[in-house]
Every structure is written in structure tokens, then in C-alpha cells.
Amino acid sequence: MPRIVAEDFTFVTNNARDFRKLYAREALHAGLVIIVPQVLPGQQRELFVLQELACSPDLVNEVIAIEIEEHEVLLTRYALPE
Fold it and tell me: Model confidence over 9-19: pLDDT tens digits?
């Protein structure tokens, strides 16, 4: 985690619980993208492409959560830490 933050990487994960906690402790970070629920790698790539189209290039201190509910993809964007 220190290298991710130190080098200003936006991190993509499906481990929402752990990384929300870690990123909430950071005063400044380059962004976090969470793909939930855990899906096969091919579907993760498809969801990630959708995320890229939906967000602006600036994710500083923000999270984008990508979820699937009843076959519909939902994107939620919020500040972290608040």
C-alpha cells in the first residue's frame, strides 16, 4: 500500500472491505476503484472499461465502486476520506 500511495497510482481491487479502511487513513491518494462482487477476470475487464468511460481523469481522494444488481451495472462515486 505505501508504494501505491507514494507513486500516485489509482488502485483497482475487488477487496472493498480492506482497501476502504486503508484508503480512509490516507490524507491524500490518487483514487480507488472497487469492482464488486467478485467476478471472473473477463467480466472484471468489461466492468473496468465501463468505469473508464464514466469517470473523469481526476480521482484524487475518491472511490468508484462498480456493482452488478439484477444484471445492471451501477457506478457509485464518493470521497474517501470524507
Answer: 888 888 889 99
Nearest to 81 by CA among 66, 67, 60, 65: 60
Give, in order, the Cα–Cα distances in Å from 56 to each of 9, 20, 34, 48, 77. 15, 20, 16, 14, 11
- All cell numbers assigned to 29: 491518494
Strand partners, 68: 73
Q: pLDDT tens digits, residue range 8-65? A: 888 888 888 999 999 999 999 999 988 876 777 777 777 766 666 555 667 889 898 8
pTM of this structure: 0.73
Helices (H), 1-82: 2-6, 16-24, 41-54
Q: How many residues does the chain have?
A: 82
- Which amino acid is present at 37? P
